[in-house]
Design goal:
It is a single chain. This protein is mainly β and about 150 residues long. The protein has one domain: glutathione-dependent formaldehyde- activating enzyme (gfa) (Alpha-Beta Complex). Helices cover about 10% and strands about 30% of the residues. The chain is built from 2 helices and 10 strands, in the order E-E-E-H-E-E-E-E-E-E-E-H. The chain is globular. The mean pLDDT is about 90. The chain binds zinc ion (2 copies).
C-alpha cells in the first residue's frame, strides 16, 4: 500500500467535522456488513483503521449512533449525516475511519475485505484476503504484520 504522508486531514461532506491523523493507517479494508451498507447507502464501505491516539478531531464533534444490541458505535456529522468513523466495543484502541473522507484519497487501496457473507455478489473484490465475518484477533494481527 502506498503510505500517505502524515499528518493528513479529512472531513465530512458539509465540512462541519474535520479530523486529522498523525500516523498512517494500520489497515485499509472493504467492509460489506449491513451497518456499512446502510450507513454509506452503498454496496460496502471503505475503511481505514488507525490507532485511536493517532486520531483527533480538529473541528466540530460528531454525534454517536449506537443501535440496541450492537457492539459498534458510528460517529456521524449531525449537520450532513455523513458517517465519519466506527468503533467496536473491546477494540477502543482503534478507530475505523471512512477512508473516502480524507482530502487526499490517492493512497487508498484496500488490503482485505471483511463480512463477505453480507456482500452483494457483484461487489466482491479480487486478489486480496477475504473474510466471511470479521477477522479474529489472530487473523487481524497477521494482516497488520504484512
Ligand atoms: Zn457534515
Ligand atoms: Zn461494516
Amino acid at each position: 500500500m502506498p503510505m500517505p504522508a502524515c499528518p493528513m486531514q479529512g472531513g465530512c461532506l458539509c465540512g462541519a467535522v474535520r479530523f486529522e491523523v498523525s500516523q498512517p493507517p494500520l489497515l485499509t479494508f472493504v467492509c460489506h456488513c449491513r451497518d456499512c451498507q446502510k450507513m454509506s447507502a452503498a454496496p460496502y464501505s471503505l475503511a481505514a483503521a488507525f490507532a485511536a491516539d493517532a486520531f483527533r478531531l480538529v473541528r466540530g464533534a460528531p454525534e454517536i449512533l449506537r443501535r440496541a444490541g450492537s457492539r459498534r458505535q458510528h460517529a456521524y456529522c449531525a449537520a450532513c449525516h455523513c458517517g465519519i468513523y466506527a468503533q467496536v466495543d473491546g477494540t477502543e484502541a482503534r478507530v475505523n475511519l471512512r477512508a473516502p473522507l480524507f482530502d487526499d484519497t490517492s493512497w487508498i487501496v484496500p488490503q482485505a475485505e471483511v463480512m463477505t457473507r453480507d456482500a452483494l455478489p457483484w461487489a466482491l473484490c479480487h486478489g486480496i484476503p477475504r473474510f466471511e465475518g470479521y477477522p479474529t484477533r489472530a487473523e487481524a494481527a497477521a494482516l497488520l504484520a504484512t
